[in-house]
Amino acid sequence: MIRSSHLFLLVVSCLLALVACSVVWQQNNDNTTTLFGDDDNAIIKEGENNHEYYNDVPIPGIGWINRIVNPTEVTLDGITYPSAYMALMKGSPLDHPCRNLNAFVNSFLFSDNTMAYFIEKYGVDWSHYIVCYLRNFLGAMLIYYGTSFAFHYYYYIHPRSQKIFANRIKPNWDTIWDQIKLSQCSMIIYVLHPIVDEILVENGYTLCYFTVKEVGGWIPFVVFTLLYFSMVEIGIYWMHRILHTNRFMYNHIHKPHHKYNQAHTLTPWAGLAFHPLDGIMQACPYVISLLFVPCHYGMHFFMIFLTAIWATYIHDAMDANIGPIMGAKYHTVHHTHYVYNYGQVFTFCDRFWGTFREPDGPTGVKKSKEELRRVFNRRAGKKVD
Q1: DSSP-derived secondary structure for 59-94
Q2: 156: Cβ–Cβ under 8 A, 6 or more apart, which residues?
Q3: From CA 114, how far away is CA 103, in angstroms rounded?
Q4: What average pLDDT score do residues 267-293 get?
Q5: What is the dihedral sign for C-alpha 63, 67, 68, 71?
Q6: Alpha helices in the chain (DSSP H)
Q7: Nearest to 339 by CA among 248, 236, 232, 258
Q8: Number of domains in the chain
Q9: Do 118 and 172 sit in the same domain of this protein?
Q10: pLDDT, tens digit, for every residue of 23-67?
Q11: Domain of 242, in residue numbers
């Protein structure tokens, strides 16, 4: 249990470290030329002694624009902007906080010159969404292959794997390859979900906010974050349950994921092995909940990011678990019995609506005839010796 939790945290730490290193590299690159000199406050004064800065200014602020590498001037509607990324936000980054955050992330992958090329070819909005789609696709691949391989190495290659599979059946390569192919094909459609998300947020259709000050301080921030996460959890539970109970949706959308219906066919590579509409439908509560409950956009962005990693963990068919978390051992029961354990992160929804089920001992472990007899008697309500 502890080792599995540590591995999960290690993967998250490595991904965050990658982003941090990118920031350091960009800020200290010897060839960097700034837009307005060396003063990070040249665009907007952020306040010399402003302890409220992080409450008042939407993340990531505006300083990053000053550190763009080799900016390219772009002229739109007669106005010349000092960089393509500034042109995306029409010279006012803080008036477009959602786009500002996405542009900041995109700047690590796409140079200002590349962004200028897209703007020239497709215009401001289309170029932004095209670049965001490409970023999402690359990010999804990095998360999928990075986290899946980390779990794969630990469970199937590391010397400890001999102990793990001493009395288990190890997944074969045909199963893993099938999961990789399905995941990679579906990923092309999956990554449209955050684009729709951004369009709704940018156009003011959601209750998304961008600073702690907007929502009234840290206490409302925490309360609304917990409420939002609870709504997402309930929404995913019911969406997942409907995908099972509606025969048409199950047969045509969810069934491909449930061909992995034994512990030895579940692997970390199955985390994204869905029909593309399946993945989008189960992620919809992240967007729909924003229509009713305020959530900080940065926190919303981060939750979606972590969901991809979580999907890897719950499909590894191992027994490590920290109740009441809906870990791998519970999700394995879902795959083997279909009508239990629909929740995503916690077991609360399944317990409340009567669909929770504990596994009959360690998942995936070979059972003797005597052990099987005890399991069947227990299910039948008979007295177990």
Answers
A1: TT-SHHHHT-SS---EEETTEEESSHHHHHTTT-GG
A2: 170, 171
A3: 13
A4: 92
A5: positive
A6: 2-28, 53-56, 63-66, 84-88, 97-106, 112-122, 124-152, 161-164, 173-190, 193-202, 218-245, 247-249, 276-288, 297-314, 328-337, 348-352, 369-379
A7: 258
A8: 2
A9: no
A10: 333 333 333 333 443 443 334 443 343 334 344 667 788 888 888
A11: 168-379
